[in-house]
Amino acid sequence: MEELRAKLKEIKDDMNEIEEVTEIIRRETNILEYFDRINKEVS
Amino acid sequence: MAIDSIKLAELDRIKKVKDRLDAADQKVNDIFSGFNIPADITDNKAKISYALTEIGDDQTARTELREKNAEAQKNYELTNKSIEEDFISMTELGNARIENYAEKMRALEAEFKTKRLVEVDKKNKIALIDDEITALNDQKLEIQGVDGKGGKIGEELAKANKAKDEASDIAREMKEIDKKIAEIDAKITKLKEANKNTNDPEELKKNAEEIASLQGNKRDLKKEKIDLSKKHLEKKNEQSEYSKNITNLENDVLNLNSEIETKVDEKDVLVNELRIGEYDKFGEEIKQAREDFETIKINYIDTVDSMEKTLNERGINVKVARIADEPVVAEDEPIIGADEPIVTETIIGADESIIAEPVVVAEPVVVEPVVAPEPEQSKKKNEKQEKSSSNAVPQNNTQSGPVQNVSLPALTPEEKKRANFEYITGYTSDGIGLSSDDRLKRIKSELGGRDYETMVKALKELKNSPVKLTRDEKNKLENLMETDKKNIAQSIKDIDDDKLQEICGLANSDISKKDLKNLYYYSFESKNKNDEKVGTANYGILSGFKHMPANSKSNWEKIVKDYTKNKENMAPEDIATFEKYIITPLKFGTLNEQSKDLYQNPVKKLFSNFVQQFEGGNKLTEDIRNAIAKNEVPVGQEMDSNKKSRNFSDSLKDQTEQNPPLNDRGNRTEEEINKGGR
Prior knowledge:
The structure holds 2 protein chains of 2 kinds.
Chain A: H1 2-42
Chain B: H1 3-31, H2 44-55, H3 59-79, H4 83-144, H5 151-196, H6 201-273, H7 276-313, E1 347-348, E2 354-356, H8 402-406, H9 413-425, H10 437-448, H11 452-461, H12 471-494, H13 497-503, H14 513-528, H15 537-546, H16 553-567, H17 572-587, H18 602-629, H19 648-658, H20 670-675
Antiparallel strand pairs in B: 1-2
């Protein structure tokens, strides 16, 4: 059981890493959207 | 490079991107430093709105804001020289992780199921021991009775007492006889004394006659006593026999007690080892992890979509590889949790209903972690792909899947049977035995006006229902399906060519209708033209795979390799076709069946030719794309089909030169059959 738990933990860690990647892409998107929007709004 | 090194490199990349994003965020914050934005407004978009409201029509302020923004943007894009490359790199990383996770999850679930099955086996053994203990106690009860009453011992005791009472009665009768004999003796003595004191001849004669009569009575009584004494002995023997039986029965009880003790000890050992509750709990944890992951994956996909859209709007034409938007584990492969008990044999209830059916558990799949792809790979992948809106076919998912699936361990016969059943017929075999009453009624109603697709869908839905079908209901359902399959098989034979193309999922392919019909007959009819258990032409194609000899595996691996290599250049519908007819059967081991005869047939060659077609077709697409870019061909102009390098008709023609054509009925000619070749 402990072995299974360890594997599940490893999988959950992987999930966190995926979330991290998602978060980075989201931040990139937000910043790009921000620049675009302010350019559009202020022009 | 070792996996650890790759991971370290990835983490390093993530950290760098994060640092860069932090710096960009800071620059953005600087832009708003001149505004009185409330502290609780943290979202950049909200800040923009607030700042614009504050500026109003102040053109000077607007210009200043625009300049600050341009500077911040310039700084950001200077450090982030290639947003496109960065984005693709990130998505590749995410895709790889998701695939990695999915493989691990599947392996973990398989391992869990196997281990849990061991626990369930213990539980079943305990139930078996309980049954044995109950049976032993029943035996005891049969011997001992309740509270010392009844039972075999009671019966024997009653018989012994009865024999004893009868012996006592006999003894009493014998004593009465002795008493009567004594009285007779006394009378005889008295008569003899009287004879001594008289010389009267008459009296002497009378006394002598009376003495003789009394002696006769005495003899009769003695004889009667001897008979009674024999009966008394018999009753005493009976009593002794019953007592002996009682002793034996008491010994039986002692032995039963000893057996029960042994069983209880065995049970205690198993109970101490049993961790079924723990496994149930862990099963729920795995389920939860899977659900969490599905949410994370959806977020990931949404985020990638959003980024791609943003980049495209900025004129950066990026289309990245995506993971398939499919569950980590197929819905028809549920993890076994607390609410889904595993059984190892079919359990039939007293009312003939099927209470539970065996669960087939696969051996754990050993999965190597997926290596993240090189970012450069993706640069070439993008433009030629279009996301298919009608299906969720994996695109450019070259890191795992097909090739790995080829190396899956061989399936057990039961698994093969189930996989064949599910993937060839479309039915969910283990779904048949599961239904709630309400759902059953609904499904039966649906099946009443059924068509094939509706029926398959309905049967798949049966799966998660907690209530089981009775055996009778199950038989009826199976008969219903069998009838449908026969009808469908017949309708395939009668179907027109256009419809057949559509059924095979090849409506838009280059395969001519005639070729397809030939293919169908080759693969379906030539296998067993009377086999009506199959429902669609798909079966015919799949049966080709199913009967691939095991030693041809390497050939299939090559085909899959070619497919993997060319996949990035294939149209989504072509990928869907390949996945459906090759990857899925490969995944479920249906290539490893016996029968070499179909190996040489057009089925294998067809898919080799698919690969060639994909390449040729794609080149044309590329040509047209280039022409459009140069404004040489108006958008929307149809491609000249004569330009295609090869099509299926050509390739089939090639192979039919080696393999004589089918006759009008789609069967091989007598001459060809007699030759023994194809």
